[in-house]
């Protein structure tokens, strides 16, 4: 108990805002299912707290409030409706759940997940509808239709790997749903700016999506669009792959 309290105090010094909590074993109803998780080992929670501090340090403080992110809960064995997840945005309870172990050893993956899942909170705060966006859909190539959601691509090999082979999209995962398309562009525009800059030179659909994404951010929290500002003169980069996704 004393260890848990000490750990929590340390985490809260590292990250403000939002409030960071260590989870007990719990089951919370959200949408049509239950979010379940168990307490995280101390060392993994600390690693995650440091990672969160590093990745979110450039987020405007007001963005957490505007996105409805009041709590970040660190846990393990995180699942939604029984499906294991690395993170879950719970906009019904203003909470972002982070599994401190799932995918934590995959280079670049846990960082990407933080930005990707946080965007789902932004997306919900924008207009209350995460799964439909006619304005965004109109930016896609004529005839394109999204798949049946990220939940059905969790085991698809390399679904989250950056690829140049799908015009207008960064990953296969981005083609599974409009909500994932936006979250992928947001996350990679923070973590892989050089790669995005290169794609913009030849992909007008991606460039148009970025303009729309910046408008969404600016509308919710003026200044937040600077998070995803891209320097079009950036050098050609290399990039890493992500094998699993949320
Ligand atoms: Zn997602």
Low-confidence stretches: 239-246
Strand content: 5-15%
Mean pLDDT, nearest integer? 89
Molecular shape: globular
Order of helices and strands: HEEEHHEEEEHHHHH
Ligand catalogue: zinc ion
How many separate domains?
2
First-residue to last-residue Cα separation: 32 Å
Per DSSP E runs of 2 or more residues, the count of β-strands stands at 7
- Alpha carbon gyration radius: 17 Å
For the biggest sheet, the summary is: 7 strands, mixed
Backbone structural class: alpha/beta
How many DSSP helices? 8
Q: What share of residues is helical?
A: 25-40%
Give a structural overview.
This protein is an alpha/beta fold and 246 residues long. The protein folds into two domains: 1-103, no CATH class; 106-246, no CATH class. Helix content is 39%, strand content 15%. It contains eight helices and seven strands. The protein has helices at 2-14, 42-56, 61-67, 109-127, 134-137, 178-191, 193-200, 204-220; strands at 19-22, 26-30, 33-38, 71-80, 83-84, 87-90, 95-99. Strands 1, 2, 3, 4, 5, 6 and 7 form a seven-stranded mixed β-sheet that branches. β6 (87-90) and β7 (95-99) form a beta hairpin. The longest helix is centred in the middle third of the chain and has 19 residues, at 109-127. The chain is globular and about 45 Å long. Residues 239-246 have low confidence and may be disordered. Bound molecules: zinc ion (ZN). The site of zinc ion has 6 residues, from α4 and α6.
